[in-house]
Amino acid sequence: MNRIYFDYAATTPVAPEVVEVMANALQKYYGNPSSIHAEGRQSRAAVEKARKQVAQCLGASIGEVFFTSCGTESNNMILRGCVNDLEVKRIISTKTEHHAVVHPLDKLAKENSVEVVYLSQDKKGRIDLEELKGLLEQSSLKTLVSLMHANNEVGTMIDLDEISEICQEHNALFHSDTTQTIGYFPIDLSKTRINFITGSAHKFYGPKGTGFVYINGDNILKPFIDGGGQERNMRAGTENIAGIMGLAHALQLSMDHQDERREAISAIRTYMIDQLQANFEDIEFNGDWEGKFHYKILSVSFPPSDKSDMLLLNLDIAGISVSGGSACASGAEAGSHVLSNLLGDSPRKTIRFSFSHKNTKEEVDFVIEKLKEMVPVGV
Ligand SMILES: Cc1ncc(COP(=O)(O)O)c(C=O)c1O
User: Which residue is closest in CA terms to ligand 1's atom 5?
Assistant: First the structure.
C-alpha cells in the first residue's frame, strides 16, 4: 500500500489543475505587474483577475482582498495594523489560537501595552458568549475580538454570525483566523460582517507561500511592508503571480466542489470514529467533536503505555502520516499549547487525524490495524 496521508490540516498537496495554471503562469506571465509595457499589463491583468475571483468566492469587494505570503503574515498584518493604525487598545482572544495569533498577541501586550484578555474555554474549547458580551460591556477601550473560525488541532468552531453580531452591538472590531475553513465552509462576507479574515492557499490544495487577507473597506490600515507600493500600498514587493493565480484557482475549485467534498470527508471521519470506538476501549475525542466541529479534523487520545511512547514515529515508519497536535517548525513531537490549555497536563497520547476527499475507508482500516499494534486496545 502507498503511504497514507491523514494530515490535511497541516497542509494539502497542490491540485493537478492548480499545478497546470501555475506552470502556465510561470512561463506566460513573466512581466512585472508594475511595468507599463504589454508584458507588465498582462501580468497585472492576471493578478487582478485572481483578486476578483477570490473576492467573488468570499462575497467581498475587489478592493478588500490583499495577497500575502501566508496565513501567518496575514494574521500579523491585521493584529499589528489594528493596534498601530486603528488605535485598538484591547484585544479579546483565546489561548488556543494558532501561534500565528498567540505570538503576535504576546508581543503586542509586551511592546505596545495592549491589554490582551483571554476568554475562558471549556474542555472542548468552546467559549461562553455571555462572557464575551460582559467583557465588551465592561470597557470603553477600543477593542478587537480575534477568534479563529476552526481550531486547527481539535477542530472546535465558532459561529461567525453570532460573534459578528455581538461585536457590532458593542462596536468592537472582529478578526477571524479562517485559515482552516476557507474553501471548506461557505463564508459570505456580504452577509456576515467581519472586519478581517485570513487565509492560506496551501490549506486548500493551492501552493505554499501564498495567502490573503480580507480587510473590510471601512478599515484603513497602513502598509505592512514598505517599498514599491504593491497591493494598493499595503504590502510592497513584486507579486508572486503564479502563486496568486494558483491560490485563486484552488479556492474556486474548493468552492465549486465544497458540498461533495464535505460529504466524502465527513463519511471518512465518521467511519474513523466508529472504527476507533469499536476497536479501542479507552479512547477520548478532543474538541467539540460532536457539536460545532471542522469535518476534516479528528483529534483522538489514547492511554499512556510503553508501546505508545513513540506513536507518531512508529506510525510514520508504518507509512502513515498524522500529527501529534499541530505541525511544529522543528518537526519535533512538541507539546501542544491547545491541548494543555484545554485539558491540562495529561500523559495521554494525542493524534490529530485530518482528512481529504481522496481518503478511503481501506486507508482507515489499515490505520486501525497498525494502531492496534501500537496502543493498548484495552479490550
Ligand atoms: C488556524 C491557522 N492559522 C494560521 C496558520 C498559519 O498559516 P501559514 O502556514 O500559511 O502561515 C495555520 C497553519 O497551520 C493554521 O492552521
Answer: 71
Active centre residues (catalytic) = 328
Regarding whether 209 and 334 lie in a shared domain, the answer is no
State which ligand 1 atom lies nearest to the alpha carbon of 326: 14
Mutate which of 152, 157, 185 for ligand 1 pocket (most atoms within 8 A of beta carbon) = 152
> Burial of 1 by CB count in 10 Å (0-12 exposed, 13-18 middle, 19+ buried)?
exposed
Place of cell 460545532: 292
Side by side, which strands form the sheet with 90-93?
65-68, 211-215, 196-200, 173-177, 143-146, 90-93, 115-118
Q: What is the pLDDT at residue 378?
A: 75
Substitution candidate for ligand 1 out of 68, 69, 72, 151 with most atoms within 8 A of CB: 72
pLDDT of 327 reads 44
pLDDT in tens, 175-229: 999 999 999 999 999 999 999 999 999 999 999 999 999 999 998 999 999 999 9
Q: Cβ(125)–Cβ(71) under 8 Å?
A: no
**227-249: per-residue pLDDT in tens?**
999 999 899 999 999 999 999 99
Measured in Å, residue 199 CA sits from the centre of ligand 1 at 8
Residues with CB under 6 A from ligand 1: 70-72, 98, 100, 148, 152, 177, 179-180, 200, 211
Residue 11 Cα to ligand 1 middle (Å): 9
- The yes-or-no verdict on residue 52 having pLDDT over 70 is yes
pLDDT digits (tens, 9 = 90+) for 337-365: 999 999 998 999 999 999 999 999 999 99
**Which domain CATH number covers 272?**
3.90.1150.10
Over residues 190-199, the pLDDT tens digits come to 999 999 999 9
At 317 the three-state DSSP class reads: helix
The answer on 296 and 282 residing in a single domain is yes
Which residue in the block uniquely carries the three cell numbers 482582498? 65
Q: Is the pLDDT of residue 377 over 90?
A: no
| Residue reference for cell 511512547 | 309
Whether residue 364 is contained in a domain is answered as yes
Residue 50's domain comprises 16-256
Sign of the dihedral defined by the CA atoms of residues 93, 96, 98, 99, in that order: positive
Q: To test ligand 1's pocket by mutation, which of 200, 205, 323 has the most ligand atoms within 8 angstroms of CB?
A: 200
